[in-house]
Design a protein that fits this description.
single chain, 415 residues, alpha/beta, Aspartate Aminotransferase, domain 2, Aspartate Aminotransferase, domain 1, 3-stranded antiparallel β-sheet, 13 helices, globular, binds pyridoxal-5'-phosphate
C-alpha cells in the first residue's frame, strides 16, 4: 500500500483527517521561509515568496482549469462563486439536502432561497429530480460532491444547459475526485473547495475556487478583495475588463498559502492511499450476502475516504449497526440521519436580521417551506446508509482486514 507505514499503531496521527495526517517537516520549512521573508501578505512585502499565487497556479494546473482563486474558507469559496455566478435576492438555487449547513447557508447569506432536491443512493444530488424543482426564479444548481463521491455531473450539466442555469459545484469534501476522468469543480461554471482542517488537503482554514471563464474569475477576484483587481499579484497575464464594485476581504495570507501549496503537492499520495485501502475493503466484502457498498457514481474517480454500506430498509440498517457494535466496531448515520433543511436556522428561516431574510424579501415571490417529508426518498436513504469508517492514508492494512471480518460476522448475525 502507498503512504507511510512506519507510524506506531497508537500514534494520534492515525486518527487525523487525510490532509492533517500528512503534515510534516515540509510544511514547517515553507512556513518558516515565509516568516523569514517578513512578507506575510500575498500583495506586498520586502521579499515576497508568492506562496498563494503559486498555490493558485498549481491548483489550476492540477484540476485542468484556466483560473484558481484562493480564499479564506470553503464557505467563502461558495459565497464568492455564487456572487460571481450572479446569484442574489429573489433567486432560487437547487441544493441537495445531504450536506453541511454551509451549502444552503451561503445561498441564504446572499439573499437567495435554497430549494431542495432528492439525492440518490450515492447520497449525491439525483439529476433526475432537478427538473421538478425548477421555477421561473431558479438561477443555479448547487451539486455537492459528498464524502469523496463525485456527482453525476454529465446529467446535471444536461439539465442545466436545457434550462440555462448556472452550476456551482461544492467540492469542499472531495478535493482530488474526478467524474468520467474529469476533475470535479471543472464541470460547472465554478467549483469551490475547502482546506479546513478536516479535509482532503488542509491549511487549517482556507478555500479555493476554480473557473474556466475569465469574467467569472474576475468577478470572483474583485468580490474577494474589496472590488479591486491587483494585476501584479493575480493570474499572470490576466487583463481585467470589469468596473470595480463593492466587495469583501477573503484574501489569503502567505502563511496559509505555504501550507496549502505543500499539501497540494501531496494530493496524489493522499488520494492513492485512500483508494488502495477502500479497494481492499471493497474486495474483502464483495461476496458477503446482504452487504452492499454505497454506489460511488464512478469507481475510478471517487476518493474512498468515507466507507458506507447501504441496506434495503432502516430497520435492517439499525440491526446491522448493533451487530457491528457487538463485534467491536461503532458505526454512524451521516449527518445524524437528518437532512440539512431540518437544521433550525433553515427550517425556521432565520437570518441575523429581518432585512437580510431572503424568504421574506420583497424581491422573492416564491413560497419555499421546509420540514419533515420534504424529500422523502432522501430521508429514507439517510436512515439506511451506514458509515463504517472514514480513513486517512495511514490507515493500516490490518485494520482494514479487521473491519472486513467484523462486517462478515455482523452479516452472518443479521442475514
Ligand atoms: C459540503 C461542504 N460545503 C462547504 C463546507 C465549508 O467549508 P469551510 O468549513 O472551509 O468553510 C464544508 C465544510 O465542512 C462542507 O463539508
Amino acid at each position: 500500500m502507498a503512504g507511510k507505514q512506519s507510524l506506531p499503531s497508537d500514534s494520534p496521527v492515525r486518527k487525523l483527517h487525510p490532509g492533517a495526517s500528512m503534515l510534516d517537516e515540509e510544511e514547517v520549512q515553507e512556513v518558516l521561509a515565509v516568516i523569514k521573508s517578513r512578507s506575510l501578505s500575498r500583495d506586498y512585502g520586502p521579499d515576497r515568496l508568492d506562496m498563494v499565487s503559486r498555490f493558485e497556479q498549481e491548483f489550476a494546473n492540477k484540476v485542468g482549469s484556466n483560473y484558481a482563486l484562493a480564499v479564506t474558507s470553503g464557505t467563502a469559496a461558495l459565497k464568492v462563486a455564487l456572487v460571481a455566478a450572479g446569484v442574489g435576492p429573489g433567486d432560487e438555487v437547487i441544493v441537495p439536502p445531504v450536506t453541511f449547513i454551509a451549502t444552503p447557508g451561503s445561498v441564504v447569506i446572499l439573499g437567495a432561497v435554497p430549494i431542495f432536491c432528492e439525492v440518490d443512493e450515492s447520497m449525491t444530488m439525483d439529476p433526475e429530480d432537478i427538473e421538478s424543482k425548477i421555477t421561473p426564479r431558479t438561477r443555479a444548481i448547487f451539486p455537492v460532491h459528498l464524502w469523496g463521491t463525485p456527482c453525476r455531473m454529465d446529467r446535471i450539466m444536461e439539465v442545466a444547459k436545457k434550462h440555462n442555469l448556472k452550476v456551482i459545484e461544492d467540492c469542499a469534501q472531495s478535493t482530488g475526485a474526478t467524474f468520467k476522468g474529469r476533475p470535479i469543480g471543472t464541470w460547472g461554471d465554478l467549483g469551490a473547495f475547502s482546506m479546513q482542517f478536516g479535509k482532503i488537503i488542509t491549511s487549517g482554514e482556507g478555500g479555493v475556487l476554480v473557473s474556466e471563464d475569465a469574467e467569472l474569475y474576475e468577478r470572483a477576484v474583485r468580490y474577494h478583495d474589496q472590488g479591486s483587481f491587483r494585476e501584479k499579484t493575480r493570474f499572470p497575464g490576466f487583463t481585467p475588463t470589469l468596473d470595480p464594485f463593492v466587495g469583501e476581504n477573503f484574501r489569503v495570507g502567505e502563511l496559509t498559502g505555504a501550507v496549502a501549496l505543500t499539501q497540494l503537492r501531496k494530493i496524489d499520495q493522499i488520494v492513492n492511499g485512500l483508494r488502495e485501502r477502500f479497494n481492499r475493503f471493497k474486495e474483502g466484502i464483495e461476496d458477503i450476502p446482504g452487504v452492499r457498498i454505497r454506489p460511488t457514481n464512478d469507481d475510478d474517480g471517487h476518493l474512498g475516504v468515507h466507507w458506507d454500506l447501504i441496506f434495503d430498509d432502516a430497520e435492517t440498517c439499525a440491526r446491522f449497526s448493533d451487530a457491528m457494535r457487538a463485534h467491536g466496531h461503532s458505526t454512524a448515520l451521516g449527518y445524524g440521519a437528518s437532512p440539512v433543511y431540518m437544521r433550525p436556522q433553515i427550517l425556521n428561516q432565520k437570518t441575523a436580521s429581518p432585512q437580510a431574510n431572503p424568504w421574506q424579501s420583497p424581491a422573492y415571490d416564491g413560497d419555499a417551506k421546509y420540514g419533515k417529508g420534504l424529500c422523502p426518498r432522501t430521508e429514507d436513504l439517510l436512515r439506511r446508509v451506514l458509515l463504517i469508517t472514514s480513513v486517512n492514508p495511514w490507515y493500516p492494512e490490518g485494520k482494514v482486514d479487521e473491519l472486513i471480518d467484523a462486517v462478515r460476522n455482523a452479516a452472518s448475525d443479521v442475514f
